[in-house]
Here is the input.
Amino acid sequence: MFRVSSNVGLLLVLLVGQVHVNTVNSCCRGRRFSTQSASNTTVDPEEVRRFQALASKWWDEQGEFAALHSLNDLRVPFIRDNLMSLHSECQPGRPLGGLKILDVGCGGGLLTEPLARLGGHVLGVDPVENSISLARLHSSSDPELGGRLRYRACTVEELLGSEEDVRGEEKEAGEGPFDAVVASEVVEHLADLETFAFCCGHLIKPGGSLFITTINKTNLSYALAIVAAEQILRIVPQGTHDWDKFISPLDLERLLEPHGFSVLTVRGMLYNPVTGSWCWSDNTEINYALHAVKSAEEPPHRQEVPEGRA
Here is the structure.
């Protein structure tokens, strides 16, 4: 943990981050950056293998996912309050009652369950089957969640394909189109953000919400989210994050706009490794939360997932 005597170490961390960014900038000067790939899939096989190995540890509040457990103190109210501001019919006892919510990259259901407890009909999807199995097992112990919470082991693009296969047919509660899609601490692990944005644009109802929490692409985020959090403090397992996959709020907004989204809110988040708690911040250089709303006009009908742009 950080102590007063560790200021020199923290300074070295920041310097490492600056050297890293300067190296990246010098190597890539003149190249066009892109948040997309040509994969047409959001799945990175290395990421799947990494989370497969950790699948049994999702509900260990003192383990590798401890920071995600405490992040619920910010992200659950962030989602709830923004949805309540858009849906006047929400009731205080069940503020998300009647809303269909999709949790993309749900893992073991750490965020999915609280959203269902607030009254939402929630579908959690994740490509790691062991994580989905654990999520189902954990939720089965709470009868209050019955009928409002479902899980599927699939990617967001596979879900979109299945949604279109049954278009016009009767669907179960919790299936799309959705009032909100949530991707919390997910986009920094995806292989193709263009495919992700495209799918969200077709899975969300006109006027619906997209909630994202992720890590900014700055020298400070490299120093603290990777060097400090992974290599020094071991808050998360080493190798969890790849700085090249981080994305700034501005680049994320540019990615979402062509798919019919307007960003309403961006808020910075700070993690205290001593207390294990999160707080809101005006600084978005490390972690941030974003809320975007889809326009009332439907995006063009899907023909195929678009090719990534170089």
